[in-house]
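To illustrate the input format used throughout this study, we show a single complete record. The first block contains the structure-token representation of the backbone; no residue identities are included at this stage. The design step must infer an amino acid for every position from geometry alone.
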């Protein structure tokens, strides 16, 4: 079976002083913060969750700071996130099923997620939604209520239909009622003494994938957005490509589509369209401006200025080369004995001051599987990398200079 490593270069301060270090930790992370999964805002400050850490961006001062396993969090592989400005509380969910609760007092690690003895499925936290002092946690077995004040789980409802568990994709709390979307329905029930009895829950058929709430509900599947309340939902008269996230504020509905973001009034009237021209994950309104969380470029404002901590292009890595104060990281792999594992990624380069990702890989049509990248010791700007591929014309050794393509020594053909 293929072995892959997440880019978790946690380097000791005494070992690698060239990298920016936290003043309250002996460790610094070299994670990628490009893939923004979710974010929220308070007083012009954005709190964003990425795959392996959280970063804070001050839209006024421009300051960016980060929080990860290197300086406070307990895990990597973040799968869900929410933040409540009223209580100044962030909850981070991991693929392991555990939580970190971040407050002004510090970070609390929560590992006692409720599980039924008969449940053997995924523990991944699919979604977190905070309302007041409660958060609803969506998991493969159903939903659990988390008490923020006590920092402990309360009621849980296992969505067990007699033969299997129904995975909850997302859920929200509105008027003390939990609304949860599964793969084939919208289910809802008040948070009361019968909350844990699954047979008492109401169910409405529908293939929803996203849900959020304020004064009204907003739901979506891949192509359509609905708003209103159960029994009286209206749809926005637009067909989307592949909806990645939806948000509702006091005055707007924000839709993050495949590569575009749309802002609507609460009655479904289009206000603005922002073409990001790359894959997006989420979007939200900050100081009357729409900010977009992307898969590859951190957070964009409406002018496509990018905000993120400096770091590698992605968290995927295979091998590291080191020369003086520079790093080169390959991203490929092999599955089994010799089957290429195509990531489609190039190599990352830390030049002693910042991380670089060559534009050559962004514009290339090749599906890369780079196993090694080595600098010329007498001329570090000159780099050679190997691409292990079964695709005709792609397997070979490639030469770069200052991260610009120079030449390919290909097994089928040599070209310049």
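Output of the design step:
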């Amino acid at each position: 079976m293929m072995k892959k490593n997440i880019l978790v270069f946690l380097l000791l301060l005494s070992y690698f002083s060239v990298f920016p270090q936290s003043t309250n930790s002996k460790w610094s992370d070299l994670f990628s913060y490009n893939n923004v999964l979710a974010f929220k805002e308070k007083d012009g400050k954005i709190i964003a969750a990425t795959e392996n850490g959280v970063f804070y961006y001050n839209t006024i001062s421009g300051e960016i700071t980060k929080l990860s396993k290197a300086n406070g969090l307990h895990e990597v592989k973040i799968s869900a996130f929410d933040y409540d400005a009223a209580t100044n509380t962030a909850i981070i969910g991991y693929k392991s099923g555990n939580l970190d609760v971040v407050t002004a007092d510090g970070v609390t690690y929560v590992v006692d997620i409720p599980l039924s003895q008969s449940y053997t499925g995924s523990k991944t936290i699919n979604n977190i939604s905070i309302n007041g002092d409660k958060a609803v946690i969506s998991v493969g077995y159903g939903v659990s209520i988390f008490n923020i004040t006590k920092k402990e789980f309360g009621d849980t409802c296992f969505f067990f239909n007699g033969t299997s568990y129904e995975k909850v994709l997302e859920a929200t709390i509105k008027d003390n009622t939990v609304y949860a979307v599964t793969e084939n329905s919208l289910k809802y029930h008040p948070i009361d003494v019968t909350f844990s009895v699954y047979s008492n829950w109401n169910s409405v058929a529908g293939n929803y994938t996203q849900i959020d709430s304020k004064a009204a509900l907003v739901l979506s599947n891949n192509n359509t957005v609905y708003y209103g309340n159960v029994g009286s939902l209206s749809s926005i008269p637009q067909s989307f490509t592949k909806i990645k996230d939806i948000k509702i504020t006091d005055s707007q509905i924000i839709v993050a589509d495949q590569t575009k973001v749309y802002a609507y009034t609460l009655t479904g009237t289009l206000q603005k369209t922002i073409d990001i021209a790359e894959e997006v994950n989420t979007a939200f309104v900050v100081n009357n401006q729409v900010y977009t969380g992307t898969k590859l470029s951190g957070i964009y404002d409406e002018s496509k200025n990018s905000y993120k901590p400096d770091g590698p292009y992605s968290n995927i890595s295979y091998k590291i080369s080191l020369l003086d104060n520079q790093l080169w990281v390959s991203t490929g792999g092999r599955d089994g004995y010799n089957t290429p594992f195509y990531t489609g990624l190039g190599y990352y380069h830390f030049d002693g001051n910042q991380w670089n990702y060559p534009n050559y890989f962004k514009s290339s049509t090749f599906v890369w599987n780079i196993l090694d990248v080595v600098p010329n010791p007498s001329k570090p700007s000159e780099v050679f990398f190997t691409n292990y591929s079964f695709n005709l014309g792609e397997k070979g050794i490639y030469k770069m200079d200052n991260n610009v393509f120079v030449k390919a020594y290909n097994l089928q053909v040599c070209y310049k």
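Structural context for interpreting the output: The chain is about 0% helix and 50% strand. The radius of gyration is 23 Å.
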